[in-house]
Amino acid sequence: MALYLTEDQEMLRDSAEGFVREKAPVAHMRKLRDGDDKTGYDPALWKDFAEMGFSSILMSEDDGGLGLGHVEAGVVLEEVGKNLTPSPLLSTGIAAVAALKEGGAHHREKWFPKIAAGDAVAALAIDETAKHDPAMTRMSAERSGNGFKLSGRKQFVVHGHVADLLIVAARTGGSAGETDGITLFAVEKGAAKMSADARRLTDASLASVVEFDGVEVDADAVIGEVDQGWGPLSAMLAAGRAGASAEMLGVGQGAADISYTYLKERTQFGVPIGSFQALQHRAAHLYAELEVARAAVLKAQQLLDEQPDGTKAYRAVHVAKAMTGWTTTLAVQEGVQFHAGVGMTDEYDIGLYMKRGRVLSELFGDANYHANLLARESGY
Amino acid sequence: MADLETFRAETRAWLEDNCPPEMREPVRGDEDQCWGGRKFTFQSEAQKVWLERMAEKGWTAPMWPSEYGGGGLSAGEAKVLQQEMSRINARPPLSSFGIWMLGPALLKFGTEAQKKEHLPPIVRGEIRWCQGYSEPGAGSDLAGLQTKAVDKGDHFIINGQKVWTSYADKADWIFCLVRTDPDAPKHKGISFVLFDMDQPGVEARPIKLISGSSPFCETYFSDARAEKKNLVYEQNKGWDVAKYLLGHEREMISGMGLGGGGKGQTLPEVALAAIGEEDDGRLRDPLMRAEIAMFEVRAAAYRAQAERFADEWKAGKANPAQPSMMKYYGTELNKRRNELVMAAGGTDALEWESEESNGGKKARDWLRSKGNSIEGGTSEVQLNIISKRILELPAA
């Protein structure tokens, strides 16, 4: 397969580009933020996304979805990133769907129609510390009657305070650091002894600290097999990481695009500042980094579509998440410096890109996390 | 797709039967490369046989039309051939500036007679070419070149000096930029001519580099002769050919020396051998490990970009200036890799001559790599091109 978008994928990109730009440009995000929105996204927009098929993009046609793959998911997410659109698409339509696909027919039957209709939102309760490291999961799931009792604390649970479904990683066996013994659970909104405390993050998005104080779930809440949650968790994280890479690439590309425009428009010493070689070389270097990051993302998406649980695909996902982490960090830093004084103001958008990029860098593991795993897997 | 799978099966079988076992060993250095040409001595019977068999199928230039000796393969088939060759670690049968650079220019700008005369010997590895571009006073400002060619009706008489002419001392013919109109603006008085190096008016003197090797020459022309029939494209329009060809050169340099490709030790292997590991298998030096891990991510991402660029280029989807980006990134990355090899290799990597160090290969490769971001247009020139042609930033 050629490593560029097919004609169908280009058409999807064009329609997603127009749709997101019209429905949810940066002004949409500003409006939610300035109105002190407490939901974290616009439910009407989520319904629109569903109508476009975006929320069911990864579901098979038999399950009522579009039956497309990670490349197509990424095409839409990149537009979400470019416009800084607050959306549950990544956690719900991409990551949660990838886990539920692996997790048993009853989960698909229950949740896919609601997600496809834009009537449900899912959140991922994975992280327990400030740095993503799912193998270090300590939260416990004790057997209790016909089911399990969950106890522990999760953080950085995006949409956690409003989610209809939480996908929770907990330990039914083994100890922190081991991948065996982790079980994935589907926990519904309103479960007793579960509380979410929504925290406003630097980019104005909301992520929750969720406390589980002996939350009881039935045995059929298990996604996949008991003690064998690492499989569906990995599938979910691979989809989430590839998706986050695509969204982050959109943030980086969006920041670069507005910066290139600014370099052509802003004049000093009577000439556009983009005519100065000191800035031209930095802009050109940024262009090169973004092209390389884009290739890494597309490669990971294509491999995930070819062999969803293959080592090769997972390695490519590590590369994509690390590479977009660095590249988008570069793009937003250069962007603010190119904009100079106005880059520090809230009025200009470039600073908003910097904030969103920082949050996405941490989501599902930062560049160091992924570079380190890649090194481990390569035997050094 | 079914056709491609058939082609893959046939290609795999043919390669199994025809690629000699010695040609599936990693290339250890320049001496293992087959350059062909009138002065070339084959290193082994296997090297000769491999070239002949591949040339017979036109697979030394897989995508060139078969009427000029090429393989006549589609982009998809050429990719399959490449994949099947890497699968068995087959060495490239022929390294050739004729294939990489002159051929594409002739296919685009050459006359039918020029293609018929020059392309088949390139495919067969019979004529080795060199490139006469840079001059002492024309480096980054290549269009400022002064080598003069006077029109004598059916031929040109050429006087001047080229520099950094790769392997001029080993080449049979040269493709050369010369000034045919000294009064025209500098880009408009240049012509692209081909001539035989085996004549009294041509002298090539190798230049010794910091790596100890001498791949480049100073090349002097004193009343050298080029036939008019070997003027490529129109007189005084050689700059168009040169620009097109520089794209190919950049494409080639950008693909050099990165990751895998049967090039011996990987960077982590070099480091593990020199530094050792902890009980859990981690490299003992945590900072070196971090530097290598970060480099390896970039190298993997760049390999994906090289694949994407090749696919886009063949499909006509790439920005025409994209080779500049590839050249810039690939060469800078290769320099970084060599710095890390030296740092990881420690004092072992300092050795210059010993057998254990394979004749100082690490140190020599490290020094040689510094030229990557200079030859074929410096990194700074590439960044200028990207900002002008791709980002369309205003001229200074």
Description:
The complex is a heterodimer of chains A (380) and B (396). Helix content of chain A is 51%, strand content 16%. Chain A contains eleven helices and ten strands. In chain A, the strands form three sheets. Chain A has a four-stranded mixed beta sheet, with helices on one face. A four-stranded antiparallel beta sheet of chain A has the order 2-3-7-6, with no helix packed on it. A two-stranded antiparallel sheet of chain A has the order 9-10. In chain A, helix 4 packs across helix 7. In chain A, 55% of the residues are buried. In chain B, helix 8 packs antiparallel against helix 9, helix 9 packs antiparallel against helix 10 and helix 9 (322-345) runs antiparallel to helix 11. In chain B, the strands form two sheets. A four-stranded mixed beta sheet of chain B has the order 1-4-5-8. Chain B has a four-stranded antiparallel beta sheet with strand order 2-3-7-6, with no helix packed on it. Chain B has three domains: 2-95, Butyryl-Coa Dehydrogenase, subunit A, domain 1, CATH 1.10.540; 129-236, Butyryl-CoA Dehydrogenase, subunit A, domain 2 (Beta Barrel), CATH 2.40.110.10; 255-390, Butyryl-CoA Dehydrogenase, subunit A, domain 3 (Up-down Bundle). Chain B is of the alpha+beta class and 396 residues long. Chain A: Residues 227-377 form the Acyl-CoA dehydrogenase/oxidase C-terminal domain. Chain A: Residues 132-198 form the Acyl-CoA oxidase/dehydrogenase middle domain.
